[in-house]
Amino acid sequence: MAVTRGFTGRRRERDARLPPGQYDVGDDWPVLTAEVTPNVEPETWSLTVDGLVERETTWTWDEAHALPQSTYEGDIHCVTTWSKLGTSFEGVDVDVVLGAAGVRPGATTVLVTSASGYTTNLPLADVTGGRAWVAWSSQGRPLSADHGGPARLVVPHLYFWKSAKWVTRLTLLDHDQRGFWERNGYHDRGDPWAEQRYAGD
Are the C-beta atoms of residues 61 and 86 closer than 8 Å to each other? Predict the structure, then answer.
């Protein structure tokens, strides 16, 4: 069977973008969740930044959309081994909301809380420096509720359970406080390239 050089090149490029143990789902985007999908309307949604900040700050839907907008373009990876290449998410960079609230010295961890009550923990360094977004659309279309709409966290360099759906609160702490999956055997950080799936990996 003849294989064109162009096809081989594209395949190698794709494979190089997949962390160990992952497969490309193509245009598919599996829906996985640990809880019942909440009914959150944009009109009632808000985002609060609190904890070790200078100013506890809350934005409504319209206020969040008035912040400087940015887009992530790249790949996402789920701990269940699927990856979706060439995604885009539109929203606000987490640096913007943390900058508005003012991070106090000593803050090391962000505890993320969803409208469903779901929580996940991230080192502050993993959500700053242009590495995380509060997103309300993907591929130019509003996020569906199943995919975390009206707004979700997007932390694409970590396994996607860290990208909490239906995000409503970012709490800055001076200590690590494990979230839902972290308390139930998942790795505390979740780096796909290091295969940090479960505690002890």
Answer: no
